[in-house]
Amino acid sequence: MEKKEFEPKIIAFVCNWCTYAGADLTGTSRMKYASNVRVVRFPCTGRIDFMLLLKAFAEGADGIIVSGCHPNDCHYTAGNFHARRRWMVLRGLMDFLGIDIRRIRFSWVSAGEGAKWAQLVNEHVETVRELGPYENYKKAAEYLKEGMYNG
Amino acid sequence: MSKIGVFVCHCGENIGGTVDCEKVAQEAAKIPGVEVSTDYKYMCSDPGQTIIKNAIKEKGLDGVVVAACSPRMHESTFRAACAEACLNPYMCEIANIREHCSWVHEKGEATTQKALDLVRMQVEKVKKDLPLSTIKVPVTKKALVIGGGIAGIQAALDIANAGHKVILVEKEPSIGGHMAQLSETFPTLDCSQCILTPRMVEVAQHPNITLYTYAEVEGLEGFIGNFTARIRLKARSVDLEKCTGCGMCTTKCPTKKVPSEFNALMGLRTAIYVPSPQSVPNKPTIDKEHCVYYKTGKCKLCEKVCPTGAITFDAPDEIITEEVGAVVVCTGFDVAPTSEFSEYGYGRYKDVITGLQFERLASASGPTMGEIRRPSDGTVPKKIVFIACAGSRDAAKGRPYCSKICCMYTAKHAMLYQHKVHDGESYVFYMDIRAGGKNYDEFVRRAIEEDGVNYIRGRVARVYERDGKLIVKGVDTLLGGEQVEIEADMVVLATAGVANKGAEDLAQKLHISYDKYNFFAEAHPKLKPVETNTAGIFLAGACQSPKDIPDTVAAASGAAVKVAALFSKDQLLREPVVAVVNRMPPPVFSTCVGCSLCVDICPYSAITMENIKDRAGNVIKTVASINPGLCQGCGTCVAFCRSKSIDLQGFSNEEMYSSVMAALHE
Question: Which of A1, A111, B30, B273 is 20 to 30 A from B100 in CA distance terms?
Fold first, then answer.
């Protein structure tokens, strides 16, 4: 019997004003995309603490999308710039932790870019499918549970 | 233990056709804490809402999850229903299983599973939700209208007549916009200036309207009901208080050959000029780019002849601030750049002109006093070709949209031409005739049947010159693609309507969304056509998409009503989605360590440092404090806070972590 294809779990952290609305437009335009993604709505990408992203990995996410308004289009003036800067830092940390940075996709999708959202999800699902399931963080969590580091 | 109700909507076939709603409801019932879980055909309908309200009352629910369309659509509907049943409205969350699930995935197990996951995420979020209450803020009952075309004029007059103060800002020296440039208007052929200029004068004289011409909005801060606008009053080098508009300066100005913008570059004006005789205010402005004094430091002829000493060469730009409660954006449109039409010879041949230029030729106040004459030699063209869809509905030019007004104005142009040149022949090359609107199709039929305009269905491949004639080569697709060649004296391009040059910049200053063509985006294409996604900012007219005059006026009045409704209250209720710094009993007071990082990054300057004092007045601790009136709830400070002392109501850390975890665990 053929082995069932790996279906990655993707969590998308998006802002309410641009990308969430863009993803709504994808729906209103009835464009189809992979169903692996679960969208979590935030007021702004500036709100997205990267502890949340690491938590998602720890809880078994295989890939993450972070998307907000294009530069200069932020509903709150500059939240997306803060998010971008934070992402530059997180990238280094992820590298250090041994998480493949390709598992996070950072993008800008405006309220008018329904097609871009569908494409973004599809591309990321394919990227993560190729990378395979993400298990390292889970293993670390299990070690912790077993008391490996408790002395 | 929480008591949560899950209500799954079928939305007719929209959700029910792809997602097994019954199964979602059954499975959701198994989630710990879910007291009741049910599905219904239309949750947003009256009976649907009654199901929710009854469940809240009968089961004593303390949280509600509605699995339906986007929260951007019906969140407020369901929250209001919860409030009616005495449940705090912020204890209601929406799982978006339509736009994010049923509409974008194929029918199947995975889609139903996703819907269930989305429901679970919201159930876990609702468990952590806290009851919130709305925030009251005062409203400044003064509106800012940006753009003084017909849209801005209509909006300003309607708001002013409703009894509110209005500030109208126009970037050109006169209000009137494109409508002032038009000759006659379809479908009634009434003179554009005759119907517009009385309104322009009314604006200038209205006691509730403050008019700033030759001014631009530099920035907008604040939020609905409480905006602060910075307006740059560009130095026009003429003191409007002193100037009487006698016109001495314009007659004496030595620089007489500046192409007139008002005449779409068809006529000439002086360097100190009034755009048109009907301008409001009817007082001149010095064009610094062409004025001899600004170029060489000599001349000042206008200053010498001015009887009132109104010329002020050295006056700088002035920046003023205005407090306003609402903004209406009416910045209009532009015609497509001329460089785009090389195949039609635009720019190469003087007798290939745009529709707007034809308007000026046909206008009684235009450079030819309303006679149709060729720009090259001033003769009356005997054969004229109109090319519709020049730049519109053309994916190759990056503009697949229809400019909407061209079919009608092309019919009008052809008709005006036939009325003015009785022995002339006119041809219209068109793709389709889109004449939807009251009396519109009848108007086009009249042009064809009564005025004998020749309509040829087909596109023009190229226009070139031969023996002083413009050769128009095209096809007639109704004759099976037969080649057509017309020797014309003049060619008029129905150029596409495009967004204004500064539209993107302005949108960024106002924090409103725009589409890929730089037209401003409405909050909802059908149900919120004049609202933007930013509360308190409204749209009217062609800055949103190409629009004709009736649609523009309707939109402007619509936006004005929205503003008047906003101003009908003294206080505004705002969503309590604001950041709060935690406070706790002594000796901790707050986990905030007072690093003041949040103070610097807050885009609204809503955070200040507050001293906690003992009874003797000694400072025990300094912590951050957030003004809920200024906070807009972006949450940037929450992510920045190093000690995790700030949280965002409605999107708190607990809520978001629970939601993320629920997405990953069954």
Answer: B30
The H or E element that residue B195 is part of is: helix B192-205
CA pair distance A72, A75, nearest whole angstrom: 9
Closest residue, chain A, to B113 (C-alpha): A35
Of A31, A49, A76, the CB nearest to B634: A76
Superfamily of structural domain B142-234+317-332+500-567: FAD/NAD(P)-binding domain (3.50.50.60)
> Is B659 within 8 Å of chain A by CB?
yes
Choose the mutation target among A24, A31, A33, A122 for the interface with B, i.e. most B CBs under 10 Å.
A24
Question: What ipTM score was computed for the predicted complex, to two decimals?
Answer: 0.92
Asked if the A10-141 domain carries CATH number 3.40.50, the reply is yes
Q: How many CA atoms lie within 13 A of B404 on its CB side?
A: 16
Contact A42 B656 (CB under 8 A): yes
d(CA B383, CA B351): 12
pLDDT in tens, A6-64: 899 999 999 999 999 999 999 999 999 999 999 999 999 999 998 899 889 888 899 99
Helix/strand/coil for A55: helix
How far are the Cα atoms of A74, B461, B512, B527 from residue B508, in angstroms, in the given order? 8, 39, 7, 24
Strands B490-495 and B383-390: parallel
- B635 lies within 8 A of chain A by CB: yes
Instruction: Please tell me the pTM assigned to this model.
Output: 0.74
Of the candidates B129, B103, B128, which has an alpha carbon nearest to the alpha carbon of residue B114? B103
What's the whole-number mean pLDDT along residues B57-84? 93
Amino acid occupying residue B368: T
Cβ distance A110 to B513 less than 8 Å, yes or no, reads: yes
